Structure formats: structure tokens, C-alpha cells
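Q: What does the assembled structure look like for these inputs?
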Amino acid sequence: MYNFELVTPSSVDEAVAALGEEDAQPLGGGQTLIPTLKQRLAMPTKLVSLSRIEALKGVKSEGGALLIGGATTHGTVAREAAGQFPGLADLAAHIGDPAVRNRGTIGGSLANNDPSACYPAAALGTGATIVTNSREIAADDYFQGMFATALEEGEIITEVRLPIPETSNYQKFEQPASRFALVGVFVAKYADGVRVAVTGASNDGVFRWSEAEAALASNFAADAVEGLSAPDGSGMISDLHGSGSYRAHLVKVLTKRAVAAAS
Amino acid sequence: MTKVSMTVNGKSVSGEVEGRTLLVQFLRENLRLTGTHVGCDTSQCGACVVHVDGEAVKACTMFAGEAEGAQVTTIEGMANADGSLNTIQQAFQDHHGLQCGFCTPGMVMSAAALLKENPQPSEAEVRDYLEGNICRCTGYHNIVKAIMAASGQDVGKIAAE
Ligand SMILES: Cc1cc2nc3c(=O)[nH]c(=O)nc-3n(C[C@H](O)[C@H](O)[C@H](O)COP(=O)(O)OP(=O)(O)OC[C@H]3O[C@@H](n4cnc5c(N)ncnc54)[C@H](O)[C@@H]3O)c2cc1C
Ligand code: FES
Ligand code: FES
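A:
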């Protein structure tokens, strides 16, 4: 790992100021960034740790939404969202392993936007708002392809606001080696419609399966998905773990399972 | 270099570290607490698990500077005050929960974290909790058995598959 300066500010303002320097980068839980640094795939001159900023931590509910601080760990979400939003708590409880969940954060996961990560499915599947130090971004505008987001240089995710659904479920088909999602599907039912977000499958990263959303809006049952053809596999990730058409098939299977579990 | 101070196994310690110094390096190289192992360095094996402020973390995936002021417990801090093995360690010995022993420090630290939050876990819960701890020797059965035994449960029925 190349060397850098590590700073641990205690407020968002100090962090934003420190990030104003060239080649400075935020450090969330480090569960993605530290392995990346070890491989010398990044060489920041300064890492600005967000882990001491209390204002960025915690889970609360307000106006029908769950508000999660950007530096809140997966472990905290798994515990604290369980009562109000069990679908999300369950997703958080199955990210990596306990030690990863004790460090890794929702902001880091969404900023990284790994095409196989779990949280992007929840953010898109609830129509969440990604709040940063400077603006609010709708999830539909935030995800811009594999590892690409609407975030600007030095911009930090301070909060994620997820509208709490009537019912929801996340189905993750684990890639057996990494245990990331080979395919993951998040289904959320609201009074005014259903959202279905798919991670792990597309070359463009997380996406909404709109045909399933339409079918489920009129009939929220696994049978409603049965009649649909699986999404087109040609734009899907094809690697040694599974072909594009296999992933497309899984999207349909997992959507049915998620609906059945949420019904 | 910057100065970092923390409490490790109940003792106040400090040392000079670089930004990139990992907690595991600080423990092993500065403090010479070599019980915490590095098995992969890619955040996957769990040989480096320690407790920071009571929570299990991978010491290879946290910077020493992030542990400023923290309470850290390593495998060296697990034995009873008189130096005898604690309940979990003794159960690993009794149930043959180790062969080469390389993964064992991380296994014991993860097991301790599990039993703190779930004092009587089921076999499935133990296996699930150990997702991030890899063992190349034992095949896990005796590790699971040891942890179940350490939680005071009857392990007679857990047969090797
Ligand atoms: C063994 C292992 C298994 C894993 N399994 C899974 C899994 O099953 N599913 C899954 O989804 N993930 C998995 N992960 C990834 C894990 O969830 C990471 O915690 C997460 O992807 C990144 O979060 P972090 O807080 O650790 O971010 P970091 O690693 O600190 O940072 C990641 C990126 O985000 C930036 N960043 C961090 N915080 C912010 C912020 N608040 N605002 C703006 N930018 C920020 C950083 O600059 C960096 O570019 C796994 C990781 C490991 C090591
Ligand atoms: S050495 Fe830390 S997880 Fe393997
Ligand atoms: S006992 Fe050898 S790696 Fe586990």
C-alpha cells in the first residue's frame, strides 16, 4: 500500500474541508477501500475517515421514511431497522460476515456501487433519496452504471432516506466464493405501487425490472411474475460464475421468491 | 508518522504509526502481540479478528489510526487471570477444534463475540456467524462443537458428517 495521511475529523464540515485537497478521499468502513489500497489500485494522498463523525451515524424514522446516517454500519442497520423495516434489516444482516458488518457502512456501499453489492438494490428498490453534504439525489438518478454514481469528487453521503414499504423482501443468490450477490432482487410494495430492483445481474449495475413492477402492481403474487419472460440476458454479466442468460433466469426466480416471502 | 494511543488487553499502549499502518501491523510489529494472525490480507479469512470497543473486526482491514482511544482485545487477552485457558479456549482443546492452529485466534475471537450477543446459539447460528473465518484443517465440525460446548450445550448429538 502506498502511504497517505489519515485524518479523523469529528464533524461533516471538517471532513468536507479536508476533502477539498487534491487526491483526498473519504474512508468509510474501509471494507472495500482498504483491500483496494493494498492492491495499489488507488493512491490517495489523504484519507478522511468518517468513522468519528457522530452526526453521520444512526437510524431513525421520520415521515414514513427510515433515515440512516451515511457512516452507519451494516451491523447497526441490521439491529435497528429490524422493527420498522425488516426487509432492509435482513439485507444488512447478510452482507459479508459479522466483522465486515461491524465496519462497513451504507454510505461506503452506495458510493462504491459495486455491481454485485446489496444496498444499491434497497436504495433503488425503495426509491430512496441519497443526501450528501451539498444536495439530495433521487436513487433513480444516482446510480449511473458499474461503480459509477452521481457523486462529485469530495462529495460525501451524509444520509440515506428510504421510504418504508408496506412489505418488502430481498433475495440474494450468493456467489459461493465471495458471498456477494450473484443476483439479488429487492421487492418493495407501497400503497401506490411496487418497485423491483435487481443487483448483480446487469453490466450497467443495479436496475429496475419494470415489467415485473407493472405486473405486481395489479396482482402482488408470485403468479403474476410467472407469466413474464425473464429480462433480456444479453446485457447481463457473463463470467465464470454464471452466464448472462443464467443470471436473467435467476432474476425471475428470485423475484418470485421475494414476492412470496413478502406476501 | 503520528502518535497513536489505545488500550490493548487492559494496558495503555502507544506508538508511532504511518497513515497506512494497519491495526494488525501495530499489534504484531509494534506491540509484538503475534497471536493475531494474517492469513490472507484480503479481508476474507478472519485469522486477524480482534475486538475493538467490544466488536469483532478484521485487524487487517482497519488502520491503527482509526483505533485511537479504543479498547482492543486480542487473543493474548483471552486467558483467565491465572493464565489458564478460558472456557472457549478450553473447549477448543477438549473438542479438538484446532489442528495447525493458524485460524484459531480468529475463531476464538469470533466465538467470543458470538456468545456475548447470543449465549446459546444453535448449530446453524454458529456456522452462520463463522462465515468470515476460514479454516483449512478441521473441516469446521469440531470448531462448531467446541463453541456449542463453550456455551454450555450438550454436543453429544452433533456428529461429524
Ligand atoms: C469479505 C467481504 C465480504 C463482503 N460481502 C458483501 C456482500 O455480500 N454484499 C455487499 O453489498 N457488500 C459486501 N462487502 C462490501 C462491504 O459491504 C463494504 O463495507 C462496502 O461495500 C463499502 O463500505 P465501506 O464503508 O467499507 O466503504 P469504504 O471501503 O471505506 O469505501 C468505499 C468507497 O466509498 C467511498 N466512501 C466511503 N464512505 C463514503 C461516504 N459516506 N460518502 C461518499 N463516499 C464514501 C470511499 O472513498 C471509497 O471510494 C464485503 C466486503 C468484504 C471485505
Ligand atoms: S488476514 Fe485479515 S481477514 Fe485474512
Ligand atoms: S486449524 Fe489449521 S487453519 Fe484452522
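The mean pLDDT of chain B is 96.
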